[in-house]
Specification:
The complex is a heterodimer.
Chain A: H1 8-15, H2 27-30, E1 47-53, E2 59-65, E3 75-79, H3 81-85, E4 91-93, E5 99-101, E6 107-108, E7 114-120, H4 123-132, E8 134-139, E9 166-167, E10 170-171, E11 177-184, H5 186-194, E12 198-209, E13 218-224, E14 229-234, H6 239-250, E15 257-260, H7 276-288, E16 292-295, H8 298-304, E17 307-319, E18 325-335, E19 365-372, E20 379-381, H9 389-407, H10 411-418, E21 427-428, E22 434-435, H11 440-451, H12 453-468, E23 474-484, E24 496-497, E25 500-501, E26 504-510, E27 516-520, H13 529-541, E28 548-551, H14 569-596, E29 603-605, E30 609-612, E31 615-621, H15 622-628, E32 642-647, E33 656-666, E34 672-682, H16 689-708, E35 740-743, H17 761-779, H18 792-801
Parallel strand pairs in A: 1-16, 14-15, 17-20, 18-19, 27-28, 34-35
Antiparallel strand pairs in A: 1-7, 2-6, 2-8, 3-7, 4-5, 9-10, 11-19, 12-17, 13-14, 13-16, 17-18, 21-22, 23-33, 24-25, 26-27, 26-32, 29-30, 30-31, 33-34
Helix pairs in contact in A: 9-17, 13-14, 14-15, 16-17
Chain B: E1 4-10, E2 13-19, H1 25-32, E3 51-54, E4 57-60, E5 73-75, H2 89-96, H3 106-119, H4 125-131, H5 143-156
Parallel strand pairs in B: 1-5
Antiparallel strand pairs in B: 1-2, 3-4, 3-5
Helix pairs in contact in B: 2-5
Classes of the chains: A alpha+beta, B alpha+beta.
Amino acid sequence: MNDMTPTREQRSAALEGMGCKRKRVEDIRFTQGKGNYVDDVKLPGMLHGDFVRSPHPHARVKKIDDSEALKVPGVLAVITAETLKTVNLAWMPTLAGDVQMVLADGKVLFQNQEVAFVVATDRYAADDGINKVIVEYEPLPPLVDPFKSMDPDAPVLREDLAGKTSGAHGPRKHHNHIFEWTVGDKELTDAAFNKADVKIKEMIAYHRTHPSPLETCQCVCSFDKIKGELTIYGTFQAPHVIRTVVALIAKLPEQKIHVIAPDIGGGFGNKVGAYPGYICAAVASIVTGKPVKWVEDRIENLTATSFARDYHMTTEIAATKDGKVTGLRVHVLADHGAFDACADPSKWPAGFFNIVTGSYDFPTAHLAVDGVYTNKAPGGVAYRCSFRVTEAAYCIERAMDILAQKLNMDPAELRLKNFIKPEQFPYHSALGWEYDSGDYHTAMRKMMETTGYAALRKEQAEKREAFKRGETREIMGLGISFFTEIVGAGPSKNCDILGIAMFDSCEIRMHPTGAGIARMGTKSQGQGHETTWAQIIATEIGIPADNIMVEEGNTDTAPYGLGTYGSRSTPVAGAAIAMAARKIKAKAQMIAAYKLEVHEDDLEFDIDGFRVKGLPEKFMSMKDICWAAYNSVPPGMEPGLEAVSYYDPPNMTYPFGAYLCVMDIDVDTGVYKVRRFYALDDCGTRINPMIIEGQVHGGLTEAFAIAMGQEIRYDETGNVVTGSFMDFFMPTAVETPHWETDFTVTPSPHHPIGAKGVGESPNVGGVPAFSNAVNDAFSFLGSTHIQMPHDFWRNWKAAKDLGAVV
Amino acid sequence: MAKTHVTMKVNGAEVEGLVEPRTLLVHFIRENLGMTGTHIGCETTHCGACTVDIDGMSVKSCTMFAVQAQGSDITTVEGMANADGTLSALQEGFRMMHGLQCGFCTPGMIVRAHRLLKENPAPSEQEIRMGISGNICRCTGYQNIVKAIQYASAKISGVEFREAAE
């Protein structure tokens, strides 16, 4: 070899494959303002639509008078439920098996519900029109408190369900009841509680919040009357699902529906579902024959599309006196708002909440979830988490701390004592899951050593004594969270959306010059798929990532996929990429064998090409194989080099992590300071450490927001009082703590590249760490559990209630 | 509604247009001028996605009327690259330090950071955090945005940027 021959390390580095901190492809356009988001789409003759919304949380709609609105210059049409009934679209099916009003049909059931859709030549004229639509309401008593939903005299919210004693998920117990979902062995669990040395019971609430990506939900619908084709540009996390939903409910042939999700300004679960705006814009385009744009404003986003959480979890743990858990019992009251529009896989009315046994070896458990209607916005989306997994992680992580307090045991020690052991994987949980892999003890010990946990506990003990002596007004809390997630929905045996199995897909086409394109069923909203997907292909087939273009979001060109949410892209689509790449590689090997005149078994893959075993000089690069694929393939072989894979995962993946939050709280003001936050994540194989770290930073910041103040709150009359960024806590760079990240690597045994997914772990694990820190700080003053969000006022109130402030 | 004629300089070029008195500057820039890099995130001056530079100040263009910008000199994200079309130190910093994810807040962040570095070429971390506190990012948690601005600050001063140790 001469000096010019690149070393193996250089050849490998040139690929920028898996494990490389590859800089993002997307950033070139985004940093120059050249992204293409939905509101940037401008079609000739495009109109704008906007909603008249209800000021009442619960009222009968007596009359809608649009006559004055239609006189406003620029206003072309006012669409109401009556208009939609002519095309059978006044109601739409939800992903959860319920139906939802597209526009108010006789009644309104939550404040800011969509009542009429005004279509005008521009967004200002549409707004003028809205102000001239006169709606006559007859207010009805609002139902705000979910605990009163099933009172015998509770108002009837859903008159359309009158007489229906069962819904999509079984029997209904009351006119405001949606479903009851139970999992686990009740008898065995009751028996464990009957003989337990120690028991704890607490109602742990996870308040209503909202994903609130910086770009709101929006679309442009354009119906071509001549061709009978509907094109929809939209902020869709799952474009193919939207296409199928439109085909099913609008009765349009699916091949004539083109769904395009361009660049998306954050999703976090907000952009999975189908909203009235999409339906109204589509109908308006069909009615007017012009493209129609609908862009949600921030108030509409916060108050009408897709809240998250609102789980009220009564949690009990049974344990031995030395701290071994023997049983878990949870009852959840789930506030779903006015319509059950949860975006869960169809058979899972409470998502994967049955991951609630967490990282611990519970011999038995029982779970019951009751979903109820209230006069609040519909939703129940997975806000940066797999379906209801963040609720489950919060529930068990808070409860373990409460148990530790009761046992007078260190919460870290209690966790170490009850972790599922490495040799127990694959582990079958009491509530039905098969955990793929994990090494919890190693991760926990690494966290404790790196943070100096023992020294922090000692400092806390000293500070508590100083507080009791009156020498300080500051209290210190250590919040541990050791979460296990369940992501990568999902295997067709138990996951579908509207009957479509939750596989995902990748199609790779290699071009003659050694470049290629990969088309995906997923849709990035900031995760950097254009960068990371190419890295997987680079490592798998030995073509530099820079030579692979990744395309997502166009249902005409992309293979069918179920989209991006629930940390499913890497576990499902990431696997599809590897499988498609391996098909390419297998064909490439045959071509190389033919060209090198050897049997294909005599070849071995070597970074960026195939080499004859034992004859290192006989080598053919993948680049040359790509060329050969288009001119000299073996006799009988089809030319070309492309492959498609639809990957149905055999199991979910189970990322986990060990987090620690160190917090100081001034009892006189309630002002807290996050002194330190350490996050160790194990997401299996790491594709791009830079992007993983970015995902962890972002997820922790959202967790910080949720735990420390972010809430969608209703007053007792059903007014939503957190409808703008003035009231809805959005941390800025000033409030946001500094994040320390770390990792262990326990690959998933069933995933082709061992990756588990990471985007949502920090949100799932972060919230309990913050809340446990606050609760840990106050515990020595006699409290067991303080509800989130832990804003300054609530901290001060807690201190006051505990007698620490006079 | 009667329209008003406005003229202003945007990214170095003289522009003009007919606008209603109520037309917001951000809509004039995005829709009349077709420069869609400037984004709208909240319409209430909280999020900063619509930040543009007007006569040497960072301004949220979602709550300013186009007529108020009559005669002013405006720079948007489209005017941030170097004269030769290469990425500016700030744009490069955002990419190198992974200071963006979905990209929706990025134009406002870069325009704001540009003015911050003009006012304070070597800001401390706290000064950066305070300096961008009018701009919300939902994806990054700000840590890498701070690094991106430190990177640009170093590069503009001709110093090699060394990441602060974790």
